[in-house]
Amino acid sequence: MSGQTRKLDQDHSMAPAIDPEIKPIDLGMPRPWRIALRLVEFQMQLVFDLTGTIVVGRAHAESGFYPDIDLSAFKGNELGVSREHLYFKLDGDRVVIVDNSSANGTQLNGDWLKSDQPYPLRHGDEITLGLMKLQVELLINPFID
Q1: Which of 29, 40, 58, 95 has a beta carbon 3.0–4.6 Å from 76's, enabling a disulfide?
Q2: Domain presence at residue 9
Q3: What's the whole-model pTM score?
């Protein structure tokens, strides 16, 4: 019997058949956007999944504020990054950034952003927070197979 599958003694005649129709619930949750921010000066990436709003800035331990992406360890304070400098969020099927009235402003591909206005992001865009340059890489777009 070597190499053959052992036949189990099971009665399948009364088992319900599986419905072949795929229902939305069967598909599970949609994949999130996966985004990498390359810190140009440090030649390293910060990778995160975007399913809602992500705050980018600097931690402030005295007040107990910790952003989702903390740039303190990357000279964030010296380079002019505010505590709640920028938001990444979803707008329909696209990713947008919003400058949160930061002290030193935000640039997208060299153009200054107006505070509290959403701007769409594309793969390869450069964001500058104060003097900190970040390169955007859209690693997973859940709307493209």
Answers
A1: 58
A2: no
A3: 0.77
